[in-house]
Design a protein that fits this description.
heterodimer, A: 730 residues, Aldehyde Oxidoreductase, domain 4, 3 domains, seven-stranded mixed sheet, 24 strands, 29% helix, 22% strand, B: 158 residues, alpha+beta, Ubiquitin-like (UB roll), DNA polymerase, domain 1, 39% helix, 13% strand, binds FE2/S2 (inorganic) cluster
């Protein structure tokens, strides 16, 4: 809810070990070192003991709010129940870039945790003065400090600060708790937000209702790049309160009631010069493969060409990843209001309110400090959905009509206009020596940049329509390289990323970026090579893995999935069962994850049923085990959906997957059982759990289909039609 | 013409909107409820489910004029934070959500199911919830929560 009572705080930009490469890559001002921030930037303690944490990270449905509260409560020695969290407000919280890339817990580890430790040290110094004695003579529990020798002498954190500020920098030298002393970290804490969500309390930006607020819809062009020639609003006379706003090619309607805005949007008669900018879907991958590229060799080891020429066996294959949609269950929504001083406030569910603020300031032609963004939760986003664009729509309309505006995208708006996860082409070749060991690996991927989050007006749909222009190619490429190198010990290897300047569809970040497609290709080829070597896929992987943490997850998943026990064949003659394994170290530097999928393939219809997925997962120290399990389950189910069903369809002018029939996702009757083995590493820093399991799911399923039927699926999704075609060729 | 009156969570409410207005708009925009959510407006996702009597129905295309004689119950009417309905308690105990945007539909569909089926099997749960979509992949927890809810509801009474 809008909160005008709190005084704005000076914003700080914070750097830390966990900062996301997407943020780094977007060339934000060099992050300020943590040590130069103030404790008060991060947390306050009220006289009654309520701790308020200010975080630049935001809740995307992954439980970051709860993990943050756990970490701060642990380091500060207060109860979880006495903590509340303010997230992503450009007027009140530190700037921690984007909440993305499965990096939030790692970031918090390097930011808020230090602030909490500094606060605790300061509070102990104050308590030592008050109670008499040295800090070492004091005990702390639940925000109450007492004398070890005389526990009756006690004072609360709230009393010590008496409503005041710390007025101290985060030194970075305050002692941090050792892992052995943790009580909250490592224990499963219930999510702080779910009780509200299960009882209908206002929880999302969709639930924000400002006084005098109007409802809005935008009328989009029939194709990207179309130009508006004429606008006839005669039919709007019959719709009470409806008003049209036209700014260049940007057309919006507002009305007192939402259904009036919807009717008005439908009643407008617009004449467009339609472009036909999209390639034929049937030849999409050939089109991508033929585009000019900027090539980047990201790994060069040994002499690949020579090693391949001398190999006893060479296996080559191409793999295809289609455009996929974030397909958030709730279409994007934002509310904007012009303030009396001419500044603009926007409530939205952006993953990066600070970066988006710059883009909106550019769009509105206002100085950055005249734009305030306040994060409120949206429907789970898994990357850049329409959340940033809808904020821009709301801001433009609010300014045009001089009233607060709530902009709710329709289902079709979201499917048609949210940036998509990019289509990619992967070509891989592996060579075996006479003993069946891999001697050479050559890998190429054709991909656009996945990191296209808005920094300027032209990065936003509203800006593109307003100015009738697309952003110039940025020359900044990121995301498609993720997990292109595999994690195996191979003497000769080369990985080349062929960057595409301008993909046919608008694209941006989606869970794991290129990691999913690259791991699909790498782990599929790994299986094809194991087959060529006549080796067991698990043993074959272990043979090429030296890192003990990598070996541990592969062995753990094989053990739990009873890999060595043969599967019972199905009683039904048309059902073939099989099992497949896949492994990756996410980003080659983060969590270790391995999966075994078990499938039943109906060889008559081509339908694939994934029955069970076993995951072994090592993301370092685990802050909240149930939170991590919840994330892994979500990753596996969503990735199963993406592998089996999901592909954005389009014709020459526009996207044609516009509703849940055109873009079906996994349903209850189709979900696999998921069994999870967590390998906790209290001696290792925590790394993200929000994405790793996504990357191994599709290849495990593809490998299981091959194991069941002999048919190799090299194009996602594995639809019945494609499975039947592969069976015919097997 | 007499104003339209509907009964929501046991309270009779006068409605200003015309009779063809979707019930969802009336619940959210006129009555200020948050439980039922907009997901598609196409009766394809279940985010907007409410109970009409004891039956879970999509409210996003249901004209408000058609429910004048019905008892409408929303998520808010199932229970409260202090006195949760068994489905609310069970979903909390199983932590059966990620973003929670689908939770309204899941809880309402689950409440309708366990009202008529005391010990639902996996197949019955799938059948009852199959058209309620979750994009975050919380399905397995939701299925566990529905079973737990049925146990809470009927064993408490036994
Ligand atoms: S909003 Fe009613 S079914 Fe989707
Ligand atoms: S929990 Fe996010 S859609 Fe179900």
């Amino acid at each position: 809810m809008p909160d005008k009572t709190d005084s704005p705080r000076s914003n700080v930009t914070v750097g830390s070990a966990g900062i996301d490469a997407e943020t780094a890559g977007t060339r934000w001002p060099t992050p300020q070192p943590m040590e130069t921030t103030q404790i008060d930037d991060w947390l306050t303690i009220a006289p009654d003991g309520l701790v308020t944490i200010f975080s630049g990270k935001v809740e995307l449905g992954t439980g970051v709010r709860t993990a943050l509260a756990q970490v701060v409560a642990e380091e500060l020695d207060v109860a979880l129940a006495s903590v509340r969290v303010v997230m992503g407000d450009t007027a009140r919280t530190p700037n921690e870039g984007y909440t993305a890339g499965s990096k939030s817990v790692a970031t918090i580890w390097g930011s808020a945790r230090y602030a909490a430790a500094a606060a605790r040290q300061e509070l102990l110094a104050l308590a030592a003065q008050r109670l008499g004695g040295a800090p070492a003579d004091l005990l702390v529990a639940d925000g109450v400090v007492s004398l070890r020798a005389d526990p009756q002498r006690r004072v609360t954190y709230g009393e010590l600060l008496a409503g005041g500020r710390f007025g101290r920098p985060v030194s970075g030298r305050a002692p941090l708790k050792p892992a052995s002393a943790y009580q909250l970290i490592g224990a499963s804490a219930g999510r702080l937000d779910l009780a509200d969500k299960f009882s209908g309390a206002a929880s999302y930006v969709h639930d924000l209702r400002l006084p005098g607020m109007l409802h809005a819809r935008v009328v989009r062009p029939p194709s990207p790049g179309a130009i508006l020639r004429a606008l006839d609003d005669a039919a709007l006379r019959d719709i009470p309160s409806a008003q049209v706003v036209r700014l260049g090619n940007f057309v919006g309607v507002v009305a007192e009631r939402e259904e009036q805005a919807i009717r008005a949007a439908q009643a407008l008669r617009l004449t467009w010069d339609v472009a036909a900018p999209l390639p034929a879907q049937a030849t999409l991958y050939a089109t991508l493969r033929a585009q000019p590229t900027t090539d980047e060799v990201t790994l060069e080891r040994g002499a690949v060409a020579k090693a391949l020429a001398g190999a006893a066996t060479v296996v080559s294959a191409s793999y295809h990843q289609p455009y996929q949609a974030h397909a958030s269950l709730g279409p994007s929504c934002a509310v904007a209001r012009c303030e009396d001083d001419g500044s603009v406030s926007v409530w939205c569910s952006s993953q990066g309110v600070f970066p988006l603020r710059g883009a909106l300031a550019d769009l509105l032609e206002l100085p950055t400090e005249r734009v305030r963004l306040i994060f409120m939760e949206g429907s789970g986003c898994y990357g850049q959905n329409g959340a940033d664009d809808v904020a821009a729509d709301a801001a433009l309309l609010a300014r045009a009509v001089g009233r607060p505006v709530r902009m709710q995208w329709s289902r079709a708006d979201e499917f048609a206009w949210e940036p998509k996860s990019p289509a990619m082409v992967m070509e891989a070749r592996g060579g075996l020596d006479a003993h069946g060991n891999i001697v050479a690996w050559e890998y190429g991927v054709w991909t656009p940049s996945h990191a296209n989050r808005p920094r300027r007006a032209l990065d936003l749909l509203a800006g593109q329509l307003l100015h009738d222009a697309l952003p110039p190619p940025s020359g900044f490429f990121f995301g498609g390289q993720r997990n292109a190198p595999n994690d195996y010990t191979i003497p000769h290897a080369r990985v080349t990323v062929h960057w595409l300047a301008r993909p046919p569809l608008r694209v941006s970040s989606m869970r794991s970026l290129g990691g999913a497609a690259n791991t699909f290709a790498n782990e599929s080829l790994m299986d094809e090579l194991a087959l060529a070597a006549g080796a067991d896929p698990v043993e074959f992987r272990l043979r090429h893995l030296d890192d003990p943490r990598a070996r541990d997850v592969v062995q753990a998943v094989a053990r739990t999935a009873r890999w060595d026990d043969p599967l019972a064949p199905s009683a039904a003659a048309n059902l073939k069962v099989g099992r497949g394994v896949a492994f990756a170290r996410y980003e080659n530097t983060e969590a270790y994850v391995a999966a075994v999928a078990e499938v039943a393939v109906d060889v008559a219809s081509g339908a694939v049923r994934v029955r069970r997925v076993v995951v072994a997962h090592d993301c370092g120290l685990i802050v909240n085990p149930d939170g991590v399990r919840n994330q892994i389950e979500g990753n596996v189910l969503q990735a199963t959906s993406r592998a089996l069903k999901e592909e954005v369809c389009f014709d020459s002018t526009h996207i044609t997957s516009l509703d849940w029939q055109g873009y079906p996702i996994l349903k209850f009757s189709e979900v696999p059982d998921v069994e999870i083995v967590l390998l906790n590493r209290p001696d290792q820093p925590p790394v993200g759990a929000g994405e790793p399991a996504t990357v191994v799911t599709a290849p495990a399923i593809a490998n299981a289909i091959a194991n069941a039927t002999g048919a190799r699926l090299r194009e996602i999704p594995f639809t019945p039609t494609r499975v039947r075609a592969a069976l015919a060729g097997a | 013409m007499a104003a339209l009156v509907i009964t929501v969570n046991g309270v009779r409410r006068e409605v200003a909107a015309p009779a063809e207005t979707p019930l969802l708009s009336v619940l959210r925009d006129e009555l200020g409820l948050n439980g039922p959510r907009y997901g598609c407006g196409l009766e394809q996702c279940g985010a907007c489910l409410v109970l009409r009597g004891a039956e879970a129905v999509a409210s996003c295309r249901l004209p408000v004029g058609e429910v004048a004689d019905a008892q409408i119950t929303t998520l808010e009417g199932l229970g409260t934070l202090d006195e949760p309905h068994p489905v609310q308690q069970a979903f909390l105990e199983e932590q059966a959500a990620q973003c929670g945007y689908c939770s309204n539909g899941m809880l309402v569909a689950a409440a309708a199911l366990i009202w008529r089926t005391r010990r639902p099997t996996d197949e019955q749960i799938c059948a009852a919830l199959d058209d309620v979509l979750c994009r975050c992949g919380s399905h397995l927890r939701i299925m566990r929560a529905v079973k737990r809810a049925a146990a809470l509801m009927w064993e408490e009474q036994a």
